[in-house]
């Protein structure tokens, strides 16, 4: 293969990565969520995660949190697992009504995927388990999908594909509303407030969790009825925020600038914080040794 062809293939891959609106939170969003989660893992969960991570992750969960997006076109079946569509303008979510793919197959949506991969990971300490799941993939999927379900437009309206078909301008750039929430708000924040340095943004969010949001922390962490995982309330929050903040003042053809950016950035930062805390809490429940003893 000539150098030119290699360059050309490289460009096509680059272009594919730039196609807007097809991925979950962008790379930065997922990295941030998993970095935050790492800080709240219990000893047991941290050990299990390290054991399950692929070698190339070098012990860092955050480095594989976009894996589910990278393999999305290779594992075609996994596409519908990144989001859930809700009926237009209802601004609510119901698992039974909404969690299916376009062919109507039940449980094939982001909340269904979170239940499924949690259930798989629960077999981690169970040597008698007859089912042999790929727990490395289950961990990487779960870490990604708990992020996705917190992106308000991943629980958006069916008619506009979660904002994907709403063409708008982000400042001068033509894009779509879904992509603004996946990527552009975070990108603009990095440029405007964090010297283009993701680690500074992550530190700022971490500081907010311990200072500003400390009174909400326990509420974020907990699941009703002592469940191991509870993605349904997260999805309800997301469609609520989608109606209140994402769709509002973002009609097709509009230009979004400072007003939109500055009022929505706090929402995005809080969702990143919540998903990080909840991912850690979920992994802590899944891998707590106390739980595996009480099951015996
Ligand atoms: Zn995704």
From TrEMBL:
Q: Which domain of life is it from?
A: Eukaryota
Q: Which GO terms describe its biological process?
A: DNA catabolic process
Q: Does the keyword S-adenosyl-L-methionine apply?
A: no
Q: Which CDD domains match?
A: S1-P1_nuclease
**How the protein assembles, per its UniProt entry?**
Monomer.
- Family the entry assigns: Belongs to the nuclease type I family.
* Class in the EC hierarchy, top level: hydrolase
- Keyword match Hydrolase: yes
Q: Which terms in the Gene Ontology molecular function aspect does this entry carry? A: metal ion binding; nucleic acid binding; RNA endonuclease activity; single-stranded DNA endodeoxyribonuclease activity
Protein name per UniProt: Aspergillus nuclease S1
May I ask which residue range the UniProt record assigns to the signal sequence? 1-24
Which Pfam family name is an example for this entry? S1-P1_nuclease
Query: Which keywords are on file for this protein?
Result: Disulfide bond, Endonuclease, Glycoprotein, Hydrolase, Metal-binding, Nuclease, Signal
Give the reactions, separated by semicolons, that this protein catalyses: Endonucleolytic cleavage to 5'-phosphomononucleotide and 5'-phosphooligonucleotide end-products
Q: What is its EC number?
A: 3.1.30.1
């Amino acid at each position: 293969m000539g150098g030119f062809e290699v360059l050309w293939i490289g460009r096509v891959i680059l272009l594919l990565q730039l196609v807007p609106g097809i991925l979950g939170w962008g790379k930065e969003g997922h990295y941030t969520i998993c970095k935050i989660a790492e800080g709240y893992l219990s000893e047991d969960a941290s050990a299990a995660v390290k054991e399950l991570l692929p070698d190339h992750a070098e012990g860092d969960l955050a480095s594989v949190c976009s894996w589910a997006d990278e393999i999305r076109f290779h594992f075609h079946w996994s596409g519908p697992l990144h989001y859930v569509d809700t009926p237009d303008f209802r601004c609510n979510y119901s698992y039974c009504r909404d969690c299916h793919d376009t062919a109507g197959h039940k449980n094939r949506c982001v909340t269904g995927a979170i239940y499924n991969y949690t259930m798989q990971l629960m077999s981690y300490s169970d040597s008698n388990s007859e089912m042999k799941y790929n727990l490395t993939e289950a961990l990487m999927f779960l870490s990604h999908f708990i992020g996705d379900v917190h992106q308000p437009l991943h629980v958006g309206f069916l008619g506009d594909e979660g904002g994907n078909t709403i063409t708008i301008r982000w400042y001068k750039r033509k894009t779509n509303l879904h992509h603004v929430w996946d990527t552009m708000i975070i990108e603009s924040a990095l440029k405007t407030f964090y010297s283009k340095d993701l680690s500074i943004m992550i530190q700022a969010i971490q500081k907010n969790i311990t200072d500003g949001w400390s009174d909400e922390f326990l509420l974020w962490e907990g699941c009703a009825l002592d469940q191991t995982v509870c993605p349904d309330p997260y999805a309800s929050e997301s469609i609520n925020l989608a109606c209140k903040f994402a769709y509002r003042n973002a009609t097709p053809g509009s230009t979004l600038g400072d007003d939109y950016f500055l009022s929505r950035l706090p929402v995005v930062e809080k969702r990143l914080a919540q998903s990080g805390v909840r991912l850690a809490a979920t992994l802590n429940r899944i891998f707590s040794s106390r739980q595996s003893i009480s099951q015996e």
